[in-house]
């Protein structure tokens, strides 16, 4: 039996557990909220845990804009083994002892992967190549290449180095790291490329997303908690937390609701601005263009 939703349309900040897909989380929230109008911003692999931003009802229209925000991850990189998926869920394709790798070499390799870089996503990913998911092409045995894409790694910090021995007896080195990056960055690919640059191979053994834009894991809810009480961040609060705010008067609010462009507020920011009416109602997302506020999504009227 489908449950009736217990909150207004807005965002649900989920602490995704390991072993479930992002689509699986969406399916769970559809049942809990009693609506099919549910989506997510930024996929997490089944192996990964942490912040998954879910939109319910009208808030699904915010998700595409939220995907452009910065993210923070805690991860463990294993040097000494490469896998077909660039993470621990894939078959090991090559091994090389990593016990002679120095901290200085690691730091130099990380420096090359920090800042504005060109990155080739993992082939076992959801990225589309000519309209078809990359992982589907891999499953079907296709030979193909993914073009490198620009991305930004704001910081790539190593906290601890731990020597270990892999199941095949290879001496490996596990790195506990934190990565702050732009949307679209593949942490698996960073692990792969760091290992490749060091000549020993590398892959990801653990991944936890701790922040998506303004939403941090400390404010996220587990699926068990959401089953007890569906906690929804109202759309007005979600927009105010994620975007620059512009408050307008009643006349401008009425014009905006009918699709009329307003004079730009002159905030001098790139990207969406959240517009609020005099009573605090969230009205729209707009962008400044040529002195005008161009609506990109209107939520009233």
Written account of the structure:
- The chain has eight helices and 19 strands.
- The protein has 301 residues and is α+β, with helices and mostly antiparallel strands.
- The chain folds into three domains: 10-69 and 213-234, Pseudouridine synthase; 71-212, 2-Layer Sandwich (Pseudouridine synthase); 243-298, Archaeosine Trna-guanine Transglycosylase, Chain: A, domain 4 (Roll).
- A hairpin with an 8-residue loop joins strand 5 (81-83) and strand 6 (92-95).
- It is elongated.
- Residues 30-187 form the Pseudouridine synthase II N-terminal domain.
Which properties best describe this structure?
tRNA processing, alpha+beta, 5-stranded mixed beta sheet, 8 helices, Archaeosine Trna-guanine Transglycosylase, Chain: A, domain 4, 301 residues, disordered N terminus, 10-stranded mixed beta sheet, Pseudouridine synthase, elongated, EC 5.4.99.25
